[in-house]
Amino acid sequence: MGPPLPRYVIDPPRGHRDTLPAAGTRLEPAEIFGRRAELVVEVGSGTGENIVAAALEHPERDHLGVEVYLPGLAQTLSRVERCGSPDNLRMLPLDAQGALPAMLPEGSIDELWVYFADPWPKQRHHKRRLINPPFLDAVLPLLAEGAVFRLATDWAQYAHHMRSQLDARPELTLLHPSGPRPQGRSSDAIPPDMAATGWAPRFEGRVKTGFESKGRAAGRLIWDLAYTRGPRPPAPDGTSDIEESTEQ
Fold first, then answer.
1. Per-residue b or e along 21-41, where b marks 16 or more CB atoms closer than 10 Å to that residue's CB
2. Integer Cα distance of 23 and 43 in angstroms
3. Fold type of domain 95-247
4. Which residues are catalytic?
5. pTM, whole model, 2 decimals?
């Protein structure tokens, strides 16, 4: 393998932790990618299977993978080099919850992906789950009006938790309100009050990663969700907040 690919890694000054940007650090997608295009962000991009495949399949879009686990970042860069080094991909090795709202403009994300996040199955660890109010408060303002938020998990209890958190957000609307739940038996316990509808079909743009394969091999079902971001609230002067940020 050749030398590292520094242009693919956004490396801002760090704040009080190595996983956070210094105060005042901003990230303008048009400057990073050299153009204005739809922006897809994957939080927890792992070894890059999804984000690299998406960048290759959709050269008209820009793609940002957020992955704090450095071995995963290294594997992503290796994958990028093997795949021909697409120029519409960048990686951010920072904590998504703290870094994204500090760095990205509101309304700048057109699609947000969270696939197979750690389910933290033990009750005492539920507060560590990514899909919780602090994370949603941080990222939902970054979604453009009409943006799609896609999620998947192979843990039924986590799927139930995600529905309870996401369905309660007034900014979000289920993309498939009549979509049936996954069919078949599951090796993990499915909550008795699990929603029967509102589930998304498997997203064709999602590569079957090692995480998904392990879940299926263990006999668990795959639960897909997709939401759209509703109208953005008007700014005090009567313009939308995205219009205001564009004019500045």
1. beeebebebeeebeeebebbb
2. 21
3. Rossmann fold (3.40.50)
4. 118
5. 0.91
Question: The dihedral of CA 200, 69, 92, 143: what is its sign?
Answer: positive
Q: 199, 175 in Cβ contact below 8 A?
A: no
What is the dihedral sign for C-alpha 207, 186, 166, 225?
Answer: positive
Where are the chain's structural domains?
A: 95-247
* Phi and psi, residue 135, nearest 5°: -70, -45
Length of the chain: 248
pLDDT in tens, 157-189: 999 999 999 999 999 999 999 999 999 999 999
Which value, to the nearest 10 degrees, does the dihedral of the CA atoms of residues 99, 68, 59, 77 take?
Answer: 140
Q: Residue 36 is which amino acid? A: R
* CA distances to 45, 108, 135, 200 from 132, in Å: 18, 21, 6, 20
Residue 29 neighbours by CB under 8 Å, 6+ apart: 36, 39, 62, 64, 104, 108
Helices (H) and strands (E) in the chain, counts: 8, 7
Return d(Cα 76, Cα 219) in angstroms, integer.
28
Query: How do residues 32-64 score in pLDDT, each as one tens digit?
Result: 999 999 999 999 999 999 999 999 999 999 999
Decide if 224 contacts 155 (C-beta within 8 A).
no
Tokens of 136: 């949603």
**Which two tokens mark 172?**
């979000």
CB–CB of 28/35 below 8 Å?
Answer: no
Rounded distance between C-alpha atoms, residue 209 and residue 217, angstroms: 12
What is the phi/psi pair of residue 55, to 5°? -65, -40
